[in-house]
Amino acid sequence: MIKGLIFVIVLAMIYWAIYFTQSPPDRTERSMRNMNIALLETTVEIFITSEGRNPDSLQELVSKEYIDSLPDDGGIPFKYDPVSGQVR
């Protein structure tokens, strides 16, 4: 319940920043990718808190229902380090 509420709050903050910030198209794409990375990193942190370990892959966040699907990567795949939990 709490992880779902945290996820909804983070998602709302991200989408608020996307839709209410005016920026040129190239900066918008870069900003969108950075926000998607922040969303994934936050979801990884929630996973770690709940499961007591780092997810083996970003796809595990989907399979364990922490997120519905991975966000659009804009043609550049997200890189995930399962040892550190960092998303790039």
What's the arrangement of secondary structure elements?
Elements lengths: L1 H18 L5 H27 L6 H6 L16 E2 L4 E2 L1
Antiparallel strand pairs: 1-2
Helix pairs in contact: 1-2
Percent strand equals under 5%
What is the number of helices?
3
Overall geometry comes to globular
Order of helices and strands: HHHEE
Q: In which range does the helix fraction lie?
A: 55-70%
Domains counted in the coordinates: how many?
Answer: 1
Class by helix and strand content? mainly alpha
Q: What oligomeric state is this?
A: single chain
* Terminal residue distance: 28 Å
Low-pLDDT ranges: none
Nearest-angstrom radius of gyration? 13 Å
Average pLDDT, rounded to a whole number, is 85
Task: Count all strands and give the number.
Answer: 2
Provide the spatial order of strands within the biggest beta sheet. Answer: 1-2
